[in-house]
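#struct-help
A.M.: can someone run this one for me? Single chain, 256 residues.
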Amino acid sequence: MTRLVSGVVLALAAVAAIVWLPLVALRVLAAVVAGAAGFEYAAAAGVTRDLSRALIVVMAAVACWWLGMPAFASVAVATAIGIAWLAVEVLLFGHDIARAAAAVAGAVYVGGPLGLLVAIHARAGWRVTLLLLATVVVSDTAQYYSGRAFGRRPLAPVVSPKKTIEGALGGVVAAALFMALAGSRILGEAPVPLAVLGLAMAAVGICGDLFESSLKRRAGLKDSSALIPGHGGVLDRIDALLFATPLFYLFLRDLP
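D.P.: on it. Structure tokens below:
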């Protein structure tokens, strides 16, 4: 019951923010979410130094803020910040390249996609943004129920023992159908390429879920945090979205 209630509250809050918040406020909210997710990533990635954790939080929020502007300059600024931060991690903190890269990756992994989510809103409006979120939710829901009903063969037993091939297929099919039907009305595109887009978004979303599961498993964590009752942490709720958003953004960039 707790999981259901908190899930409904989160969904309503997300829809309300996307529909009614002005763009600047939405960018601020996305940056706050990116900072929270960045903190959880730091714990999962084994970053124990307080200053390094703080930098991950700040840089995830900054990357989200800058990439929320649908302009090439924002990408250049985010890239410059990432390179500078990499140099600080290696030269000032004395970390090896692998550890420094893992820290910088937090900004790319969390801040980048959330910034692009805001950029989608700025470019295409709230209906298209909700289409992206709804496709990810439909895929996740279909994976869960398909896996419970038909799941027999594990998809990635080492990383996520409960995920099944049947569940993944259910999520992919559901996302393809949903994007073909809803996307054709909202985007005005032909159903077939939209179905392919939905399929690809579900596939990369599953990869995002498995990626976060791998981070948690390596860190010995069940959830990224206990922030959301019944759901875990911020990363647990947006892991698929982080991987699906850049793909959807690239699709929109190719539209006239």
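A.M.: thanks! The mean pLDDT is 84.
D.P.: also worth noting: Residues 191-219 form the longest helix (29 residues).
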